[in-house]
Amino acid sequence: MSQTDPELLLQELGGWDWDLCRRELPAVLPRLLISFPGGRFGCWVAVGSHLEMAGVRVLRILTEMFLPHISLADLEQTFFSKVLPKTLQLFDNLMYELSSEAKGLTSQNTELCSTVRTLLQASPTMVQLLETLTGCVRYVCTLQECVPLESIRTLPSSVLYVIKNTFTHCKDSESVYCGHLHLISDVLQATFKEAYSLQKQLMELLDMISMDSASTEDNITDMVSVIHTVLEICSVISNMDHALHANTWKFIIKQSLKHHSLLQCHLKHSDILSGLCKDTLLSFRSCLQLAEQMKMSEIQEGTDLRLFQKTVKLCRFFANSLVHYTKEFLSFFAGSCSQLHQLFLQIYSKFPPSLYAPEISEVHRDEISRVFLVALDPLVNQLLPFSPFMEQVLSEKLDLPPEQQLPQCLVLITIMDKLSSQPEEVQTLWNTGKSLSLFSALFFSFQQCSGELSFPVCLPEVISTGQPAVPITLYHYVCVHLCSFIASTLPSHFPQLEYALLDAVLGSSMITSLLAMDSWCFLARYGTAELCAHHVVVIAHLIKTWPSDCYQVSALGVLLRRMLFLMAPDHQAKLAHKFLPEEEENLAVWQHISLKALNPDLRKRVACQLCVAGLARCRRWLNSRRAVGELRPVNTALSVLLAAYNFAGDTLEAELQASILGVLGQFWTFLQAKQVSDEPCLQQTLCLLLHLLEFFIQALDVQLITQVFALQSSLFQLDPPDHVRLAMVDFLSSMGKVFIPQEAQRQVAPQLSCLFASLLADQTWLIHQHALEAFMHFAEETSHEDVVPQCLNSEETKNKVVSFLAKTRQVEETTEARTERMKQERITCSAQFMKTAGELESTGEPLAKRACHPPSEEQYKSAVGTMEGAVEAVKLLLRKGLPPPWLAVKLEALHTAIAILRDSVR
Question: What global pTM score does this model have?
């Protein structure tokens, strides 16, 4: 066959009718296949008034004139398997030529520009090729309702190859055409539209594919390949066209569900899920960007608004797709739960009230929430029974960045809200956990939200049924939802709940401890009286057992004080009988209890017994060697006296009150400023004494007032710690009720004014604020008006006091500045928490040893005093009754140990 034969054949075929094509099909088809031109393009032929590439012309003749005469059963073997490989070669050559010619494209090079346009333009080449393929696919759709895949096996993969590469070319056009896209943007748009039409037609055909349980392995492999290729197309078109993007994903989901039983074990579920999550986040961020732009430009209508609404609907589509796909293939997501978890975290981290969210209007925020987040919500319900998702969410090794700490807390709250409606086995899954229970995970997550709690961020919550939601603080929000969850917790899960509550109360975060206390008090109020009484007894035993200087005891004490108000009266009486107030060993418990919680008769009796026991302990120490090492029980006794006066002082008899004041006065005779400054135990004693003297402030004699002010003045020169300063502030506040006798004024008044001046100038904001309040009370009540101006020894202090009295607000920081400050503070707090946790766990090398210093004489005196006190205690026990059999052996061992110590001293 000569070089001109293909051209003559094409010209001849132009005059053939339908019947002639059908009759000559067996003879002409091989000749047409051979006539596909070689080289990069093949030749050009004249078609009417324009040129057309010979290869495209041959393809068009094949599909329009001969394809309709081939039966469905013969399509693959006779036509597609032979024509489509050559079509792909033609397509690749065309793409190569486009890329090559585009490198030299400029507005001055009109000839090259015309060539590129010719390659792309609607009638010739690329678009014609796409149109021809579209017609081919459309024809197959008309053959019958159900199309066997084996009859068109080569068609889907070939067409998808063309579609994917065409979309990729359009997407990369800016770089492909070297900044000269504007010269051919119109023909590129036409190419994109034709590829869009081709994909739409192919998806219609694939919808007609019939597959059943008898389908061959090849059919299954081909359909899986189709879905995976369409998935790749999704990643190409994600930023190009909303409708195209949505329809492409819709096809993937539909086909996956349609052939669920055949394809489920072959699909790349992790890739599909990853693509869905990625495109969901991409659309969500586009929503936020549009909303932020409208907020900044203050334009709430027009093109941006319509685009925003379309993008929100696209987000809803992706949310629904995730829900449908997850429902059918959840069992295959064991290794992909981190992606689902991250999806929620990233959405919440960029949406109000997150400190890291862009500023958008309330209207747009509500629309995103109503349209998108509501559609995403059922996904949580589907994931709750899935153990791998639970392990991911409750993992101790999440190591989340700061912006995802609040989102994690909100995810846990969402799970809590839904868990009560789940079957018991699902509740057990989450409440028992694998490493952490849901309770423990929430407290841990809440602790990380320091910035949001300090800000504070607010979340909407319906307080009253039938009323609209109102904004409440994060603390309030978490507390409400946690208490609601506790109310629905199964009794079998109470061990995990109690463990989490106690662990949080004893933790290092004060606000997390407070949340646990609030939740525990709700449990005590919501549960039975017996449960409340049981918890109170357990807490009291813990307080009694632990050393009083352990900071966790203070938290337990606050919890005990609050829970006593929730106890039934008969249970309160039983508690008083179980922990007898007159026994000194129980004073450690009673020092934390508010006697106001008791009924009047029990309160009066307990207060009297506590005062008698506390006085006895104080007197015994005052009449002994007064060793500092024995002060701890004395401080406990003073705390009990303070508790009795705070909550039941009016019930104490005058004689008992006089005895207490007499004992208090004895302490001031030996307290020395230097010793108090060096000994934390003595600092606590001083604070307790100052608080107790406030109740006797008008009964203090001249000598005692002089001693008290002399010690405070001397101690202040030694820079006492903050808690001592606060105790001084409180004491000075009560001095307004005192008339200082003439003989003491010359000494006390200057000390009083000097102390006030120093505390008002304190740089610690808490002490400074308390000092302002104390000075205001003092100034209002004192009869020594000449002392007031002496306290204001600087212009700065005067201005601060005047501003405080006038209730003048300081300059407020902006919301943006406050947000940034909270972010920085969070980083600092997180670093400190990590440092503390590392020191406590100490799994690596041991910590460096501290430098050893020789013990002081005072330390020896304290240790010996403790020994002497123990001997006296044993003597007292022997007077009360017979000793246990083992005591004699133990005393003999102690005697030997003391003899060894004595010999070592010699």
Answer: 0.82
